[in-house]
Amino acid sequence: MTSKEQTLQAIKDTAYTLFAQFGIDKTSFAMIAKEIGVSKPALYYYFDSKEALVTAIFDELYVAIEKDLTIDLRSVTTANYVTSLIAFGDKQIDDQLQNPLFNRVFNEYLLLAARDVRYHERLQAIQRIYLHTFQQYVDTGVTLKQMSAENATHKATILAMVLDNISNYILTGYELDYKKIWAVTVQQILCSE
């Protein structure tokens, strides 16, 4: 990694941490520069504005989330279907519990989406990907005869909404047995025939 690349990454990492600590609105270029140990004008070499930095960090989060939600179901069989679906949710829960900064930063972008259509549209795209992922899981379950095709879209939506709401509870710091809730939800959806 070159010195410029290292500085760019330091700027993004520092901004990410400060966004989690103080919020996007209360984090200034001056704060970021001070934390890194560079002048405020030096930041403008990398980003035209704070908004450009906010967008760059969001773009990285978007790509990471999109990658995390991309699944390959070719290895899913009748024997491992249920455990695969539960494991998918468990991984989402673990990732969120292990990265409290992500929770805070993502919450900042949720707030920003209420004021800025660009973020609103991108967050809706994430929701569509999320729903599509669960639709793929349910369709695979139907193909493997693990569930009926009746209400398949609704079942996928329920799974997505439950896991999303688990994420919301994690964001608030409310402690529950999230993995058990997820496993029970999966079992109930599969047994609702």
Automatic annotation (TrEMBL):
Where the record puts its DNA-binding region(s)? 28-47
What residue stretches are annotated with the HTH tetR-type domain? 5-65
Q: Give the transmembrane region(s).
A: none
Q: Which SUPFAM superfamilies match?
A: Homeodomain-like (SSF46689)
The UniProt record lists the keyword DNA-binding: yes
- Which keywords does the record carry? DNA-binding
Read off the InterPro entries from this record: Homeodomain-like_sf, HTH-type_TetR-like_transc_reg, HTH_TetR
Single GO molecular-function term? DNA-binding transcription factor activity
Q: Does the keyword DNA-binding apply?
A: yes
> Which Pfam families does the record associate with it?
TetR_N (PF00440)
Q: Which PANTHER family match?
A: HTH-TYPE TRANSCRIPTIONAL REGULATOR PKSA (PTHR30055:SF226), HTH-TYPE TRANSCRIPTIONAL REGULATOR RUTR (PTHR30055)
Q: What is the protein name for this chain?
A: TetR family transcriptional regulator
Q: Say which species the protein is native to.
A: Lysinibacillus alkalisoli
